[in-house]
């Protein structure tokens, strides 16, 4: 299954787990944006929608502002073919003390259920999202919640490089997202 990597504000620099995944996984593709430092919701949405259309039924692996972007896309285009989403360290664009001014254009944060299997990974000391807010969002989105404890923003600055547990979480979500195969196919009797 292809994995679409959706980065957040300022992109994922050297050593970031998303960048490492792109280097290691031949089935991973980055959603590129015009400007990583000056995000514009509609421009970013167009780029994400084009990537989802180019790689249908992919697993989305989003970090920070990228998670918010996917929630907006799911609200606007619930018909798009997305196998599932691993949403890591969502950014609280609604919180004036948490979010930088340059991401305010992404508010309000959508809280409708997401139309695909989703896992939210959150930290208890993320400066960009209070844990209780992350718990609320996971519930609103119909997502599983993984509590990483005191893990900061789950980025290079908080000590996350390759992040093997992230791979395991993505693999588990991928297995959950695959359509069930008929029993005849499982037994090797299908075409």
TrEMBL record:
One of its GO terms (molecular function) is hydrolase activity. It comes from Pseudoxanthobacter soli DSM 19599. The lineage of its organism: Bacteria, Pseudomonadati, Pseudomonadota, Alphaproteobacteria, Hyphomicrobiales. SUPFAM superfamilies: alpha/beta-Hydrolases (SSF53474). This is Alpha/beta hydrolase family protein.
